[in-house]
Amino acid sequence: MSNSQSFYEAKLALEWQYEFGVDEAISDAPINRYEIEIVPPKLKINPKSNIAHVSSMPDILSSRETASDVAKILAKKCDNLTELRDAIGLFEMCSLKKGAKNLVFSDGPSNSRVMVIGESPTREEDNQGKPFVGAEGELVDKMFQAIGLSRRASNPNDAIYITTAIPWRPPQSRDPSSDEIAMMVPFLKRHIELINPDFIVLMGNIACSAVLNKVGINKFRGEWTEAFGKRIIPMLHPRSLLRDPMRKRDTWNDLLSLKEQLNS
User: Fold this and answer.
1) Helix orientation angle between 178-195 and 205-212, rounded to the nearest 10 degrees
2) CA 197, CA 185: separation in Å to the nearest integer?
3) What is the predicted pLDDT for the residue at 2?
4) How far apart are CA 167 and CA 100, in angstroms?
5) Nearest-10 Cα torsion for 42, 44, 49, 52
6) pTM for this structure?
7) Residues 29/65, Cβ–Cβ less than 8 Å
8) Residue 59 has pLDDT above 70, yes or no
9) What is the percent of the chain where pLDDT is above 70?
10) Strand pairing of 230-235 and 199-203?
11) What's the whole-number average pLDDT of the chain?
12) 8 conformational bin, left if phi > 0, alpha if psi -120 to 50, beta if neither
Protein backbone atom coordinates (compact mmCIF):
# COMPACT_ATOMS: atom_id res chain seq x y z
CA MET A 1 0.00 0.00 0.00
CA SER A 2 1.44 3.39 -0.99
CA ASN A 3 1.73 6.30 1.42
CA SER A 4 -0.89 8.22 -0.57
CA GLN A 5 -3.38 5.34 -0.29
CA SER A 6 -2.91 5.00 3.49
CA PHE A 7 -3.30 8.76 3.90
CA TYR A 8 -6.60 8.94 2.01
CA GLU A 9 -7.96 5.82 3.72
CA ALA A 10 -7.16 7.31 7.12
CA LYS A 11 -8.74 10.61 6.06
CA LEU A 12 -11.93 8.84 4.92
CA ALA A 13 -12.08 6.91 8.21
CA LEU A 14 -11.80 10.14 10.21
CA GLU A 15 -14.49 11.84 8.13
CA TRP A 16 -16.79 8.83 8.61
CA GLN A 17 -16.35 9.01 12.41
CA TYR A 18 -16.97 12.77 12.42
CA GLU A 19 -20.25 12.31 10.54
CA PHE A 20 -21.38 9.93 13.28
CA GLY A 21 -20.66 12.49 16.01
CA VAL A 22 -17.10 11.67 17.07
CA ASP A 23 -15.68 15.18 17.37
CA GLU A 24 -13.00 14.83 20.06
CA ALA A 25 -10.51 12.26 21.35
CA ILE A 26 -10.73 11.42 25.05
CA SER A 27 -7.72 9.06 25.06
CA ASP A 28 -5.08 7.65 22.70
CA ALA A 29 -6.53 4.13 22.71
CA PRO A 30 -10.01 2.53 22.97
CA ILE A 31 -11.26 2.03 26.52
CA ASN A 32 -13.26 -0.97 27.69
CA ARG A 33 -15.49 0.58 30.34
CA TYR A 34 -16.48 -2.86 31.62
CA GLU A 35 -12.89 -3.62 32.66
CA ILE A 36 -12.27 -0.37 34.53
CA GLU A 37 -12.06 -0.74 38.27
CA ILE A 38 -14.17 1.89 40.03
CA VAL A 39 -11.80 3.86 42.24
CA PRO A 40 -13.12 6.46 44.71
CA PRO A 41 -12.13 9.98 43.63
CA LYS A 42 -9.13 11.42 45.48
CA LEU A 43 -10.03 14.88 46.72
CA LYS A 44 -8.32 17.11 49.25
CA ILE A 45 -11.07 17.49 51.81
CA ASN A 46 -10.70 19.34 55.08
CA PRO A 47 -10.69 16.70 57.86
CA LYS A 48 -13.17 18.84 59.79
CA SER A 49 -15.61 18.83 56.88
CA ASN A 50 -19.00 17.19 57.39
CA ILE A 51 -18.33 15.00 54.33
CA ALA A 52 -14.73 14.07 55.26
CA HIS A 53 -15.74 10.59 56.41
CA VAL A 54 -17.45 9.81 53.10
CA SER A 55 -14.42 8.17 51.49
CA SER A 56 -16.30 6.46 48.66
CA MET A 57 -19.77 6.44 47.19
CA PRO A 58 -20.54 2.75 47.96
CA ASP A 59 -20.30 3.57 51.69
CA ILE A 60 -23.63 5.40 51.53
CA LEU A 61 -25.40 3.31 48.91
CA SER A 62 -28.16 0.81 49.47
CA SER A 63 -30.35 -1.12 47.07
CA ARG A 64 -33.26 1.24 47.82
CA GLU A 65 -31.47 4.54 47.24
CA THR A 66 -31.73 6.28 43.88
CA ALA A 67 -29.17 8.72 42.49
CA SER A 68 -31.36 11.58 43.73
CA ASP A 69 -31.47 10.00 47.22
CA VAL A 70 -27.68 9.79 47.37
CA ALA A 71 -27.39 13.39 46.12
CA LYS A 72 -29.72 14.49 48.93
CA ILE A 73 -27.60 12.67 51.52
CA LEU A 74 -24.41 14.34 50.31
CA ALA A 75 -25.97 17.79 49.83
CA LYS A 76 -27.50 17.78 53.31
CA LYS A 77 -24.06 17.25 54.87
CA CYS A 78 -22.68 20.44 53.31
CA ASP A 79 -22.46 23.50 55.56
CA ASN A 80 -20.46 25.69 53.17
CA LEU A 81 -19.59 26.08 49.49
CA THR A 82 -16.27 24.23 49.77
CA GLU A 83 -18.03 21.18 51.19
CA LEU A 84 -20.69 21.40 48.48
CA ARG A 85 -18.10 21.50 45.73
CA ASP A 86 -16.33 18.51 47.28
CA ALA A 87 -19.63 16.62 47.58
CA ILE A 88 -20.42 17.17 43.90
CA GLY A 89 -16.91 15.94 43.09
CA LEU A 90 -17.53 12.78 45.15
CA PHE A 91 -20.85 12.09 43.43
CA GLU A 92 -20.12 9.27 40.97
CA MET A 93 -23.69 8.47 39.88
CA CYS A 94 -23.87 11.17 37.19
CA SER A 95 -22.24 9.70 34.07
CA LEU A 96 -21.64 13.19 32.66
CA LYS A 97 -18.68 13.52 35.02
CA LYS A 98 -16.77 10.77 33.18
CA GLY A 99 -16.60 12.73 29.93
CA ALA A 100 -16.07 16.22 31.35
CA LYS A 101 -12.71 17.87 31.95
CA ASN A 102 -13.64 20.11 34.85
CA LEU A 103 -16.33 20.66 37.43
CA VAL A 104 -18.00 23.99 36.65
CA PHE A 105 -19.11 25.32 40.02
CA SER A 106 -19.45 29.10 40.29
CA ASP A 107 -18.08 32.60 39.83
CA GLY A 108 -18.72 35.85 41.70
CA PRO A 109 -19.11 36.92 45.34
CA SER A 110 -21.05 34.46 47.50
CA ASN A 111 -22.83 37.30 49.34
CA SER A 112 -24.47 38.68 46.18
CA ARG A 113 -28.12 39.63 46.27
CA VAL A 114 -28.64 38.12 42.82
CA MET A 115 -27.88 34.51 41.88
CA VAL A 116 -27.74 33.65 38.17
CA ILE A 117 -28.24 30.00 37.18
CA GLY A 118 -27.24 28.97 33.67
CA GLU A 119 -27.75 25.70 31.81
CA SER A 120 -24.98 23.10 31.39
CA PRO A 121 -21.34 23.94 30.59
CA THR A 122 -20.15 24.55 27.05
CA ARG A 123 -16.80 23.25 25.77
CA GLU A 124 -15.12 26.54 26.73
CA GLU A 125 -16.67 26.54 30.21
CA ASP A 126 -15.60 22.92 30.65
CA ASN A 127 -12.02 23.80 29.66
CA GLN A 128 -11.80 26.72 32.08
CA GLY A 129 -13.95 25.29 34.89
CA LYS A 130 -15.97 28.52 35.11
CA PRO A 131 -19.54 29.43 34.10
CA PHE A 132 -20.29 31.93 31.35
CA VAL A 133 -16.96 32.48 29.59
CA GLY A 134 -16.16 33.29 25.97
CA ALA A 135 -18.71 35.12 23.81
CA GLU A 136 -21.64 34.09 26.03
CA GLY A 137 -19.78 35.29 29.12
CA GLU A 138 -18.97 38.64 27.54
CA LEU A 139 -22.62 39.14 26.67
CA VAL A 140 -23.80 38.18 30.16
CA ASP A 141 -21.34 40.64 31.72
CA LYS A 142 -22.54 43.45 29.43
CA MET A 143 -26.19 42.64 30.16
CA PHE A 144 -25.84 42.91 33.92
CA GLN A 145 -23.41 45.82 33.80
CA ALA A 146 -26.14 47.73 31.96
CA ILE A 147 -28.18 47.69 35.21
CA GLY A 148 -25.21 48.22 37.51
CA LEU A 149 -24.41 44.59 38.41
CA SER A 150 -21.18 42.64 38.02
CA ARG A 151 -19.64 39.33 39.06
CA ARG A 152 -16.54 41.34 40.01
CA ALA A 153 -18.31 43.80 42.33
CA SER A 154 -17.35 43.75 46.02
CA ASN A 155 -20.58 45.34 47.25
CA PRO A 156 -23.33 42.67 47.60
CA ASN A 157 -25.90 45.16 46.29
CA ASP A 158 -23.98 45.47 43.01
CA ALA A 159 -22.86 41.86 42.62
CA ILE A 160 -24.08 38.70 40.91
CA TYR A 161 -23.14 35.14 41.78
CA ILE A 162 -23.18 32.75 38.82
CA THR A 163 -23.53 28.98 38.68
CA THR A 164 -24.97 26.30 36.37
CA ALA A 165 -27.86 23.89 36.78
CA ILE A 166 -25.58 21.03 35.67
CA PRO A 167 -21.90 21.14 36.76
CA TRP A 168 -20.56 18.78 34.08
CA ARG A 169 -20.49 19.29 30.30
CA PRO A 170 -22.63 16.68 28.47
CA PRO A 171 -21.00 14.93 25.48
CA GLN A 172 -20.93 17.19 22.40
CA SER A 173 -22.70 19.81 24.56
CA ARG A 174 -26.04 18.04 24.16
CA ASP A 175 -28.91 18.89 26.50
CA PRO A 176 -28.85 16.85 29.72
CA SER A 177 -31.62 14.29 30.12
CA SER A 178 -34.45 14.72 32.62
CA ASP A 179 -32.85 12.04 34.83
CA GLU A 180 -29.48 13.81 34.76
CA ILE A 181 -31.14 17.08 35.73
CA ALA A 182 -33.19 15.47 38.51
CA MET A 183 -30.22 13.79 40.20
CA MET A 184 -28.33 17.10 40.40
CA VAL A 185 -31.25 19.16 41.74
CA PRO A 186 -30.47 18.41 45.44
CA PHE A 187 -27.02 19.94 44.98
CA LEU A 188 -28.49 22.99 43.23
CA LYS A 189 -31.10 23.42 45.95
CA ARG A 190 -28.40 23.29 48.64
CA HIS A 191 -26.33 25.74 46.59
CA ILE A 192 -29.23 28.20 46.66
CA GLU A 193 -29.69 27.70 50.41
CA LEU A 194 -26.01 28.42 51.11
CA ILE A 195 -25.90 31.55 48.94
CA ASN A 196 -29.33 32.70 50.18
CA PRO A 197 -29.85 35.38 47.48
CA ASP A 198 -32.73 37.82 47.39
CA PHE A 199 -33.40 37.09 43.71
CA ILE A 200 -32.60 34.31 41.25
CA VAL A 201 -32.27 34.65 37.47
CA LEU A 202 -32.82 31.44 35.52
CA MET A 203 -31.17 31.60 32.10
CA GLY A 204 -32.51 29.03 29.66
CA ASN A 205 -34.77 26.00 29.65
CA ILE A 206 -32.42 23.65 31.50
CA ALA A 207 -32.21 26.01 34.49
CA CYS A 208 -36.00 26.39 34.42
CA SER A 209 -36.45 22.63 34.26
CA ALA A 210 -34.21 22.13 37.31
CA VAL A 211 -35.75 24.86 39.48
CA LEU A 212 -39.31 25.31 38.17
CA ASN A 213 -39.79 21.84 36.68
CA LYS A 214 -41.06 23.28 33.41
CA VAL A 215 -39.73 24.33 30.00
CA GLY A 216 -40.92 26.65 27.24
CA ILE A 217 -39.08 29.77 28.33
CA ASN A 218 -40.33 31.79 25.37
CA LYS A 219 -43.78 31.66 26.95
CA PHE A 220 -42.93 32.61 30.54
CA ARG A 221 -39.67 34.59 30.39
CA GLY A 222 -39.92 37.83 32.31
CA GLU A 223 -42.70 36.52 34.59
CA TRP A 224 -41.80 36.64 38.28
CA THR A 225 -42.44 33.47 40.23
CA GLU A 226 -41.21 31.66 43.36
CA ALA A 227 -39.33 28.42 44.03
CA PHE A 228 -37.15 27.17 46.86
CA GLY A 229 -38.45 30.14 48.86
CA LYS A 230 -36.90 32.70 46.47
CA ARG A 231 -38.18 35.29 44.00
CA ILE A 232 -37.28 34.13 40.51
CA ILE A 233 -37.31 35.59 37.02
CA PRO A 234 -36.63 33.41 33.93
CA MET A 235 -34.63 34.97 31.09
CA LEU A 236 -33.41 33.84 27.69
CA HIS A 237 -29.99 32.22 27.65
CA PRO A 238 -27.27 34.40 26.05
CA ARG A 239 -26.78 31.64 23.47
CA SER A 240 -30.29 32.41 22.19
CA LEU A 241 -29.49 36.11 22.04
CA LEU A 242 -26.33 35.50 20.03
CA ARG A 243 -28.37 33.46 17.53
CA ASP A 244 -31.21 35.99 17.41
CA PRO A 245 -30.08 39.50 18.44
CA MET A 246 -33.66 40.79 17.98
CA ARG A 247 -34.56 39.01 21.25
CA LYS A 248 -32.24 41.34 23.20
CA ARG A 249 -35.17 43.76 23.56
CA ASP A 250 -37.07 41.14 25.57
CA THR A 251 -34.06 40.53 27.79
CA TRP A 252 -33.57 44.25 28.35
CA ASN A 253 -37.14 44.48 29.63
CA ASP A 254 -36.45 41.53 31.96
CA LEU A 255 -33.29 43.20 33.25
CA LEU A 256 -35.18 46.42 33.95
CA SER A 257 -37.75 44.38 35.89
CA LEU A 258 -34.93 42.89 37.98
CA LYS A 259 -33.47 46.33 38.60
CA GLU A 260 -36.86 47.60 39.75
CA GLN A 261 -37.14 44.71 42.23
CA LEU A 262 -33.63 45.40 43.55
CA ASN A 263 -34.45 49.07 44.10
CA SER A 264 -37.85 48.51 45.68
Assistant:
1) 70
2) 17
3) 55
4) 9
5) 20
6) 0.79
7) no
8) no
9) 81
10) parallel
11) 87
12) alpha
C-alpha to C-alpha distance for 76 and 80, rounded to whole angstroms: 11
For the chain, the domains span 3-35, 40-93, 101-263
- Strands 160-164 vs 114-118: parallel, antiparallel or unpaired: parallel
**Residue 58: per-residue pLDDT:** 52
Which parts of the chain fold into alpha helices (H)?
3-19, 67-76, 81-90, 96-99, 123-128, 134-145, 178-195, 205-212, 217-220, 238-243, 248-263
CB 181 within 8 A of CB 171: no
CATH architecture entry for 101-263: 3-Layer(aba) Sandwich (3.40)
What is the DSSP pairing of strand 160-164 with strand 106-107? antiparallel
The Cα–Cα gap between 221 and 232 comes to 10
* Buried/exposed code over 83-103 (b: 16+ C-beta within 10 A; e: otherwise): bbbbbbbbbbbbebbeebeeb
